[in-house]
Amino acid sequence: MRGAIRALALPLLLIAVPAGAAIVPAAPATTAAPTAEPAIADRQDAGADTRIAGRIRAIFGEIEALSDVEVAAREGVVTLSGTVRTAEDIDRAERIAGRVAGVATVENQITRDVSVGRNLSALGKVSKRFGDLVAMLPLIGLALAIALAIALIGYLIAGLHGLWRRLLPNVFLADLAASAIRFVFIVIGLVVALDMLGAGALMGAVLGGAGVIGIALGFAMRDTIENYVASLMLSLRQPFRANDHVRIDQMEGRVIRLTSRATVLMTLDGNHLRIPNSTVFKAVILNYTRNPQRRFDFDLGIDADDDADAGRGVGRDALAALPFVLAEPAPDAGVVEVGDSNIVLRFFGWIDQRETDWYKARSRAIAAVKAKLEAEGFALPEPIYRLRFDPRTMPLPPENGAETQGTDAPPAPVAPAQSAREDEPQDIAPDEEIARMVEAERAQEGDRDLLDPKRPVE
Q: What radius of gyration, in Å, describes the C-alpha atoms of the chain?
């Protein structure tokens, strides 16, 4: 039974399925070809050329620049002739004619009219615009008056110097705030005036261009801007006072003033030194005046055979006996190194800079310690070198009395004579000459000083 059913089903399947489909696989779908230009009809209705030419003439008649263009149509080919004022009008006429239905192609024979008489119409537009400008003069005057009034209000507010100096920490910031207020009010006045004249788009373009120019100037003047910002930060931080003795990196002197551009120092040899504030802001500043107590130190060498601890004690006693050396902190000494022919000792002492000059005190202390060490029998030798002319493998000849009989005995050490000036008063007072020069400079009229003694020092 099943065999009979299969025998009947096989012919039915062969009928239902095409012969080629069971053997050859279906071909893949092909991509659609790009859309071609509209085909030109093989025949044209009677009167089509007249309708096309009439339609194009009607469109050109509504456009002043194309009103003189002549249009002709034959078998769908449109021919344009005549003259126009600009080359843009030539292209415009061709584009309009090509968009009309039924046009097969456009023959553009339009030429530009460069005659003086035809282009005199532009003068009429200029005169019309001039008339419009004359008519707007009252509005322009009102807008200008409002802009000036707003700017005047800004100048009046910025002119309250006493108020800004009370509200802000220093003169530099007060002047900066006044300048910013004036600028803001001037911009507001311009915006209001242009808005009254209907030129808001022009103001946007101007502000956008100003922003681009500002960025370019910022890159070009980055050093100047950095120096200006450093001046602002230094005026807020107040890192030193006038007449302070400071060292800025490797530059040393007394502060004359801090200006909006530079820090002015009086060097210790009496010369003016102007340091850009950007350098001062990033530099390491050493202020010798902030702490009245200052330590001095110096090195002295004693003979290698001398007792180093005894030499330290003698030097400390000599420093403690000096009237300008402070008892607290107490003077001290230490061994720095053992050299080829001596032992180097370093001595320390403290002074009060308000009563004693540092350089003078150090000079007096070196002389006093040296004299005390020599009085106690300590030798301060110079470098000694021993020369050998024999081969290195042979020992030195022994020393005996016979070899030294004919030599002169070295002179005995002579105690140092008492200084004739030891009893005289020593000048250790601070040297105020540079300080007086700084005060004289500050008394003269010059750049505005940003150092404020009323504000705390950083």
A: 51
Q: Which residue has the tokens 């019309």?
A: 128
β-partners of residue 70 are: 81
pTM assigned to the model: 0.52
The tens digit of pLDDT for each residue in 178-188 reads 888 888 888 88
The Cα angle at residue 349 between residues 344 and 255, in degrees rounded to 5: 115
* Coil vs helix vs strand at 357: coil
Residues 342, 3: Cα–Cα separation, whole Å? 130
Long-range contact set of residues 372-378: C-beta below 8 Å, sequence gap at least 24: 372/314, 372/315, 372/317, 372/318, 373/300, 373/302, 373/311, 373/314, 373/315, 373/318, 374/415, 374/416, 375/415, 375/416, 376/310, 376/314, 377/413, 378/302, 378/303, 378/306, 378/310, 378/311, 378/314
Taking residue 243's Cβ as centre, other Cβ atoms within 10 Å add up to 19
Sign for the CA dihedral angle at 158, 162, 167, 168 comes to: positive
Helix or strand or coil: residue 125? helix
Rounded alpha-carbon distances, angstroms, from residue 139 to 142, 145, 198: 5, 10, 11
- Please tell me the predicted confidence (pLDDT) of residue 80: 92
Query: Which residues fall within 8 angstroms of residue 193, CB to CB, at 6 or more apart?
Result: 143, 144, 146, 147
The neighbouring-strand residues paired with 108 are 80
What secondary structure does DSSP assign to 23-80, as a single string? TSPPPPPPPPPPPPPPPPPSS--TTHHHHHHHHHHHHHHTSGGGTT-EEEEETTEEEE
Residues 311-327: pLDDT tens digits?
Answer: 999 999 999 999 999 99
Q: Which residue has the tokens 């002074």?
A: 351
